Amino acid sequence: xxxxxYPTDLSLRQWKLLEPMLPPPELFGRKRSVDLREIIxxxxxxxxxxxxxxxxxxxxxxxxxxxxxxxxxxxxQWFVALNQSLRKLARVKSGKExxxxxxxxxxxxxxxxxxxxxxxxxxGKKVKGRKRHILVDTLGLLLIAKVLTADIQDRDGAKxxxxxxxxxxxxxxxxxxxxxxxxxxxxxxxxxxxxxxEIVKRNDDLxxxxxxxxxxxxxxxxxxxxxxxxxxxxxxxxxxxSEAWIYFSMSILMLKRLNC
Length: 260
Fold this sequence. Notes:
Layout: H1 12-18, H2 36-49, H3 63-75, H4 78-93, E1 102-111, E2 120-122, E3 127-137, E4 142-149, H5 154-165, E5 174-177, H6 184-192, E6 196-199, H7 215-226, H8 239-257
Parallel strand pairs: 1-5, 5-6
Antiparallel strand pairs: 1-3, 2-3, 3-4
Helix pairs in contact: 2-3, 4-8, 5-6
């Protein structure tokens, strides 16, 4: 019996683009019987609706099966690889090189629920929970994400991001950031990464909301992510699961960007 369709379901063209990027089946063990397209559709529903695993609607594969694949792909870093592959396709379609030469960094503090393994308190934002650190290109596409406790300073989180991404982005040389990244980090980035960290300052003479050059791009990316109710709050027990949902949500957005 065919299940009820949802707006989050992948179209046929989206699935044909995504299917070759899926991990190959295991060489040993029982032959796979589940439809991976339905697994992806279930993850899309979970990301957008933000419901609990056990509340996955009838018609999708059992929630235990969906979670099995989510956990397996999270551990193998497949969500990271998927985001990278789709980002390169989206950049080329926009007339740009596969890898960027400039990027923007920012963080977002979010609350967690009671099951979170690790949390902290962000005194600046007055938020107890976790902090999402992301680096995006000039199109707003995700380069790397790291979820840490909220008490970790932006500068310390930036070092973790930059250390991980510097070998992956050979063309990168310019990073835009807000005032939270000023100070010794500028020298650290120049010495360790051979990049320029440029602080985009706010005009204190102007009151109210200001659209700041380049910084609005990463803020828009956070807005894209927050369209997914799964990311409206950090509901995950592990930070690795939080990161996986960020990468997956951006991957689905890029599938749409590719006009599939």
